[in-house]
Specification:
Elements: H1 17-21, H2 25-31, H3 33-38, H4 58-96, H5 99-105, H6 127-131, H7 139-189, H8 192-196, H9 201-218, H10 220-251, H11 254-291, H12 293-298, H13 302-362, H14 373-415, E1 437-444, E2 455-462, E3 467-471, H15 478-485, E4 493-498, E5 501-502, H16 508-513, E6 515-518, H17 529-534, H18 542-551, H19 555-559, H20 578-590, E7 596-600, H21 608-621, E8 626-630, E9 642-647, E10 650-655, H22 657-663, H23 666-674, E11 678-679, H24 681-689, H25 691-701, H26 714-721, H27 733-740, E12 757-760, E13 763-766, H28 781-787, H29 792-822, H30 827-880, H31 883-887, H32 893-906, H33 912-944, H34 947-961, H35 969-984, H36 986-992, H37 995-1049, H38 1053-1076, H39 1080-1095, E14 1117-1124, E15 1135-1142, E16 1147-1151, H40 1158-1165, E17 1173-1178, E18 1181-1182, H41 1188-1193, E19 1195-1199, H42 1209-1214, H43 1224-1233, H44 1237-1241, H45 1260-1272, E20 1278-1282, H46 1290-1304, E21 1308-1312, E22 1324-1329, E23 1332-1337, H47 1339-1344, H48 1349-1355, E24 1359-1360
Parallel strand pairs: 3-8, 3-9, 6-7, 7-8, 11-24, 16-21, 16-22, 19-20, 20-21
Antiparallel strand pairs: 1-2, 1-4, 4-5, 9-10, 12-13, 14-15, 14-17, 17-18, 22-23
Length: about 1350
């Protein structure tokens, strides 16, 4: 069986319907790959905390140690400050103690004034004894001590905070930089089988999200946790030391608060998950609809989709409102408990102080008071600060847990040593010129589908220099052979040998260096043509590149480009046609000078003309090399030295084309199924001579004067018209999975949604999804409020509640000052007054609690209604736009989804909530400043100096604590995209052996952000240090000046505390509130974008109420002097004075080279675009005057890649007519007409079977027939078939073609086809070239013109006998 003369014939099995439908083993293994990937992978246990630092250098560890020490010292400074504050209060109180009160305790030592006189005869109290009760001190000296001590603590806090934040961020950045490089290296070294069984989309998030989470978990958050935890522990110790009894009483309310908070937090988590799930559903609807907007619009599904979108939004709104209500309840209850604890603490604390005071009055000589003003304030503020800081420390525990979980996945991949290791240096190097391949009894199945056997004992010999073609039905194992040769997988049993040596014994990198591969959809990277070719081999010079391009028939078209080899090819080669991409891929393969050339369906996705040029390049490339070809178009392999026919995972036949045709076996069956007539060898030779001419025609299509601008190929147009350029956050597992995880062929399944990059100045950078926000309308607050006007009662209540919240801090300051003032009164008065003030604290707590509840819940209600309204209006407005709008890069699917989700929800950040924050902040500051001026204007002015500093400090600190910008995600977006590009195209990267190249590119892209991040760590340290220290300086200055006023201007000391607390605490509260408030500027920008969209009038009005309605559209269509260019490519003229007429009931076909304008004609008919010149008429009426929905309702479209929605088969078919509800009988009837009913009936759920996202659960042929049924259910007058079979294998094409032939009967049909055999029976064929009709006639009439373009196209698709 090793030669072309000796072969074994196996009986040909008839093609079953199963095979036709595409449920073959290999195909099924791939088609169900997404399903398998969606199964959750077993979660790994989180790594131990110390293991998070396994990649830290000794320098990093030193910085971490230094940071921990600094955080502990910084944390201890707060309790010290509280002690000083307590002593200060004691100083004020002692200074104000009434002499009369003292004389009550020592009447024998007081005269009649009354005044203390220790010289009286009966007085037995010494000055030393009196010192126990009344400290005779220098008041100002004590005040100065407090001011200096507090300022010193502020300075220490500043230095320590700066040290721990800077050191930890610096160390974390260095560690994660190292981890990023190791992670990408580990991913790229994994074997392809591992990719098949893992969610490759996860790598995109792990390169960004997970590594950012690790960085946050090992960075400043460690220091923050230690800092706040230290404050908590030290404050609690401080409280117990200064008064354990009072501490326990205050702590008694904490369990209530903790339990209530836990219950509410749990409920919030549940509701948030529900809300996100609902928004996720709505988002998936939006993504599905916008990515298939042409299908939605063509079948009039806009209203239905808006309703479906809105239904999901209602669920999200309900969950959001409930979450807001719970948040309001939680916030209100928290404030009530806080004020209740104030009341309890002050009531019980004053009671203890007065008890001790009375004891001292009774026996001043033996007086040892347990509690005084100092201990009361130290205990109170220690417990308060401890509770606040434990709350601030808690979120960081979650950050560590998240980091440990994220690190587990990352470290697991880094530590994994693959079975097929591309980075291994082990193994022999294959000898130069090796090319004898031997397959011996090879058994194989893909790791992702171990139950599906692909190769079942395959044996084959391929001699050096031979060209061997592999043919067979889909799923028989052809492409598997290609991948086994590259050692992407190892066989389960049997062996594959190169020159007698098992591939497993050879060095993997060296083996792949000897192999060149060209696939169906070659992957080009987002750089220049020259750089793409250099990926083929290291160390090549310009002459090597030029020679490879000449050998690949690419030289002439490259020379026609303005920048020649320096032309950027665009994302995945999007700036080039399919033929041009293929030839660059061939050049890249040839520059390797490979011993073995693998061609996996290298021309199957090309049009006839491009195929001829590329095939000529391939024929040239395979000379003198061992070549293995896989092809569906059998015309491309007729000159092979040996054709190997596969069946059921085994070799069925071997021979030349002529030999196998005579055998009438498997190969003969495949040729017959393609239905193309045979021609003589002489005709074949003539056709080969035409390649140069065809190449010239293709060159003319490219606009030589316009740089990278070119006529779009059919396949690329489908990319552009679907607006598939995605935003960062919209690259999903399924998207990358199509490109990476497919089990068959490194590009067998085109990646419709891929990561997009642009290389400028030699480095990869982001392609902006949106142009800078230019030409955005200025949006006033009034317009935003008008959009929210229906919810005005909610907003009014919310604003009133905000005013009350604004007054809460000044009221607290007044009550706090009054309670301190009580301490200098006699015990009876003190007890009465403190009870009164504590009742006021409770009342204030209730009022503030209700206000907080109303503020949060009312604004949430208003905001959720606004968000739903704006999302619906934005989505509705998008579906009104003309197709040219969707072609703009700024209106890609990802960008539009982001606009719907982010922008629409961000608008509420400029509506009720910021108004509430503004009102609250305004009233807090106004009342605080007013109080300060009322009680002591001089002290108020001095304290007001600190207001801006405290505001700014607390604003930035709160932003930091919220986690904002701790990792500059945008800075790493470019490098992450580069990594994802390598991962998503792993088969290409591995096949070229470019793993190290991409590692280096990735690290180079990371270096600048890495350096910037290290510099930024200093800025963050300064901000946090400044924020921590400013309140200390403010208290220092305020209390010192207040003390001076008490001493020199007889100011009542309680007024000092009222002014200080009102201004400083009030300002701190305002700073935190503004930081937590939504970003107002961001909200205005979002509003501008949304309102610009809502205000935009589409250039093609698809309103059902406008335009002329024609009662009976039959299909009389005329293009007269039609001129057209796509709005996004105005310099490229697609149609040039095209004249074409279609009569009702005719079946016509449009043929011609890529970019000539065939698909454009169909889109103009659907009124996706309008002509720029000339006239297009339907039934004699200018199409621009007709009612657009009615016009589209009379047309049915079936395209090359039909878009099905993630619904049932019945719903997908019924989608063809959205003007009514189609009955089940109609659905079944349409399915029968489309040859799909029998298949559907064989499924367990029949018509209720879900087709999966974009129809992934169906084969290509099945999807096409569902699309045909969808088109037929509307009983269209005009049927539009845009390359409806070009992407199918032979068997599927035959079944689908039968359905199409049946569907065309009795109606006007317009067909675009690359496979000319499918249109030879139409009434009329129009040959289009350069935007004009150059030939028209029947198939036979056009063939009679030997020199005509159609005859040449036909000749290039025929098989020799």
């Amino acid at each position: 069986m090793g030669t072309s003369k000796t072969h074994e014939t196996l009986k040909v099995q008839p093609f079953t319907d199963t095979a036709k439908d595409g449920f073959e083993p290999e195909k099924e293994a791939k088609d169900n790959d997404d399903k398998d990937k969606k199964k959750e992978e077993p979660s790994l246990p989180p790594v131990a905390i110390h293991r998070l630092f396994r990649f830290a250098s000794s320098r990093d560890l030193f910085l971490i140690f230094l940071a921990i020490v600094a955080a502990i010292i910084g944390g201890c400074s707060m309790p010290v400050m509280i002690i000083l504050f307590g002593d200060l209060a004691n100083t004020f109180v002692q200074n104000d103690l009434n002499v009369t009160q003292i004389c009550v305790g020592i009447p024998l030592c007081c005269d009649d004034t009354p005044a203390i006189n220790l010289d009286l005869p009966n007085c037995n109290v010494t000055e030393e004894d009196l010192g126990n009760f009344f400290i005779n001190m220098n008041f100002l000296e004590q005040i100065t001590t407090f001011a200096q001590g507090t300022a010193l603590i502020g300075l220490v806090n500043f230095i320590m905070s700066y040290i721990f934040v800077t050191c930890l961020n610096h160390a974390a950045e260095c560690q994660v930089f190292k981890i990023r490089g190791l992670f990408l290296k580990a991913i790229l070294r994994q074997d392809i089988g591992w990719y098949d069984t893992h969610q490759t989309g996860d790598f995109a998030s792990r390169m960004t999200e997970d590594l950012n989470k690790v960085q946050e978990g090992i960075g400043e958050k460690i220091g923050m946790f230690i800092f706040f935890a230290t404050i908590f522990i030290a404050s609690l110790i401080n409280a117990f030391v200064h008064g354990w009894e009072l501490t326990l009483v205050i702590l008694s309310v904490m369990p209530v608060l903790v339990i209530a908070t836990a219950i509410i937090a749990g409920s919030q988590t549940y509701l948030t998950a529900r809300e996100l799930k609902a928004y996720g559903k709505a988002g998936s609807v939006a993504e599905e609809v916008l990515s298939a907007v042409r299908t939605v619009v063509a079948f009039g599904g806009q209203t239905k989709e808006v309703e479906r979108f809105e239904n999901n939004l209602h669920d999200a709104k309900k969950a959001g409102i409930m979450r807001g209500l719970l948040t309001g309840i939680g916030g209100g209850f928290m404030w009530l408990i806080i004020y209740a604890s104030y009341a309890l603490a002050f009531w019980y604390g004053v009671k203890l102080i007065m008890d001790d005071t009375e004891d001292c009055f009774e026996d001043i000589l033996h007086c040892d008071p347990r509690y005084d003003a100092s201990s009361l304030l130290v205990v109170f503020f220690s417990v308060l600060m401890g509770a606040m800081n434990v709350g601030q420390a808690t979120p960081y525990v979650e950050a560590f847990s998240v980091a440990r979980g994220a690190a587990a996945q990352i470290f697991d991949i880094i530590d994994r040593v693959p079975e097929i290791d591309s980075s291994s240096t082990a193994g022999e190097h294959p000898e130069k010129g090796a090319g004898n391949l031997t397959f011996r009894d090879v058994f194989f199945n893909y790791p992702s589908r171990k139950d599906v056997k692909i190769l079942k004992g395959m044996t084959l010999d391929i001699n050096k220099g031979e060209t061997v073609a592999l043919v067979g039905a889909s799923g028989c194992g052809k492409s598997t052979v290609i991948q086994l040769v590259q050692r992407f997988y190892d066989p389960l049993s049997g062996s594959i040998m190169l020159n007698g040596k098992d591939l497993r014994q050879l060095n993997l990198s060296a083996l792949r260096e000897r192999i060149g591969i060209v696939g169906q959809e070659p992957v080009l990277f987002g750089c220049t043509i020259a750089e793409n070719i250099r990926y083929g081999r290291d160390g090549i010079n310009d002459s090597d590149i030029e020679q490879a391009c000449k050998d690949a028939n690419a030289y002439s078209f490259i020379q026609s480009l303005p920048k020649k080899y320096d032309t950027l090819v665009g994302e995945r080669g999007a700036q080039l046609s399919g033929g041009q991409k293929q030839r660059i891929a061939i050049a890249r393969a040839l520059v390797r000078n490979p011993d073995i050339l693998l061609l996996d369906e290298a021309t199957s996705a090309l049009d006839t003309q491009s195929e001829g040029v590329v095939q000529a390049a391939l024929d040239k490339a395979r000379r003198g090399r061992t070549t293995i070809m896989v092809a569906h178009r059998l015309s491309t392999i007729r000159t092979a030295d040996k054709i190997v026919a596969f069946e059921d995972g085994r070799v069925a036949e071997i021979g030349t084309h002529g030999e196998l045709m005579k055998m009438e076996g498997v190969y003969y069956g495949l040729v017959s199924a393609q239905g193309i007539q045979a021609v003589d060898d002489e005709d074949m030779e003539e056709e080969e001579d035409d390649v140069t001419e065809l190449d010239m025609v293709e060159q003319d299509i490219f606009d030589k004067g316009k740089g990278n601008n070119r006529v779009r190929t059919e396949s690329e147009r489908k990319m552009s018209v679907a607006s598939s350029i995605l935003s960062d956050d919209s690259v999903t597992m399924e998207d990358i999975g199509h490109a990476v995880g497919s089990a068959v062929g490194f590009s067998r399944v085109p990646s419709l949604q891929a990561s997009f990059y642009k290389r400028q100045k030699g480095s990869f950078t982001d392609t902006p999804l949106e142009s800078p926000d230019e030409d955005l309308p200025k949006v006033s607050m009034i317009r935003i409020l008008k959009a929210n006007s229906k919810e005005w009662p909610y907003m009014l209540i919310g604003l009133l509640a905000s005013v009350i919240m604004g007054a809460s801090m000044p009221v607290y300051a007044i009550l706090f000052g009054e309670v301190l003032g009580v301490l200098s009164e006699d015990p009876v008065s003190a007890r009465d007054n403190v009870s009164y003030y504590c009742i006021l604290f409770l009342i204030t707590g209730m009022v503030v609690g209700i206000a907080m509840f109303l503020q949060i819940s009312m604004f949430t209600l208003a905001g959720e209604h606004l968000t739903l309204r704006m999302r619906k209006l934005a989505f509705e407005a998008m579906l009104r736009q003309e197709m040219a709008w969707f072609d703009l890069p700024s209106n890609s699917t990802g960008a539009l989804c982001t606009r719907i989700s982010s922008d629409a929800s961000a608008i509420q950040g400029a509506s009720g909530s910021p108004l509430g924050t503004l009102f609250q902040s305004f009233f807090t500051l106004t009342i605080s400043i007013g109080l300060a001026m009322y009680y002591q204007w001089q002290l108020g002015l001095v304290t007001s100096v600190f207001i801006p500093f405290v505001l700014v400090a607390l604003y930035f600190q709160t932003k930091m604590i919220m986690g904002s910008d701790s990792v500059q995600k945008e800075a790493f977006a470019s490098s992450a995209k580069l990594a994802i590009e390598a991962i998503s195209n792993i088969r290409t990267v591995a096949g070229l052996g470019r793993e190290k190249t991409f590692e280096e590119l990735y690290l180079n892209a990371l270096r600048q952000p890495h350096m910037d991040a290290k510099k930024r760590s200093h800025v963050r340290g300064l901000i946090f240090g400044f924020a921590q220290s400013v309140p200390f300086f403010a208290y220092s200055g305020c209390m010192f000046y207040g003390g001076w006023l008490v001493e020199n201007q007889d100011l009542d000391y309680k007024n000092v505390f009222k002014v200080a607390e009102a201004l400083i605490l009030g300002t701190m509260m305002v700073g935190q509130a503004t930081a937590f408030a939504p970003n107002y500027n961001k909200a205005l920008l979002a509003a501008a974008r949304v309102f610009k969209l809502l205000d935009r009038k589409p250039k093609i009005d698809a309103n059902d109420a406008t335009g002329l309605r024609i009662n009976d559209i039959q299909g009389n269509i005329t293009f007269s002097q039609a001129g057209f260019h796509y709005p996004t490519r105005k310099e490229v003229r697609v149609l040039r004075e095209l004249n074409l007429a279609v009569q009702a009931g005719q079946t016509i076909a449009l043929v011609g080279p890529s970019g000539c304008g065939k698909s454009t004609c169909i889109q103009l008919l659907q009124r996706f675009y309008d002509l720029h010149k000339g006239v297009l008429t339907v039934e004699g009426q200018n199409i621009q005057s007709l009612n657009v929905p009615q016009l589209r309702s009379r047309m049915g479209i079936v395209s090359q890649e039909p878009v099905l929605f993630d619904r049932t088969l019945a719903e997908n078919i019924a989608y063809g007519d959205n003007s009514r509800t189609a009955s089940m009988d109609e659905v079944v009837d349409a399915a029968r007409q489309a040859n799909i009913h029998s298949f559907i009936s064989s499924l367990p759920l029949k018509y209720d079977t879900l087709v999966g996202e974009k129809g992934t659960q169906l084969s290509g042929g099945q999807k096409q027939r569902v699309a045909i049924a969808r088109a037929l259910i509307r009983n269209p007058a005009v049927l539009l078939l845009d390359e409806a079979t070009s992407a199918l294998d032979t068997e599927s094409e035959k079944v689908v073609q039968e359905a199409l032939d049946k569907a065309q009967k009795g109606r006007t049909s317009i067909t675009i086809a690359h496979r000319l055999s499918t249109i030879q029976n139409v009434n009329r064929i129009f040959v289009i070239s350069k935007g004009r009709v150059v030939e028209a006639g029947t198939h036979n009439e056009l063939l009679a013109r030997k020199e005509g373009l159609y005859a040449k196209l036909w000749g290039s698709q025929t098989l020799s006998k």
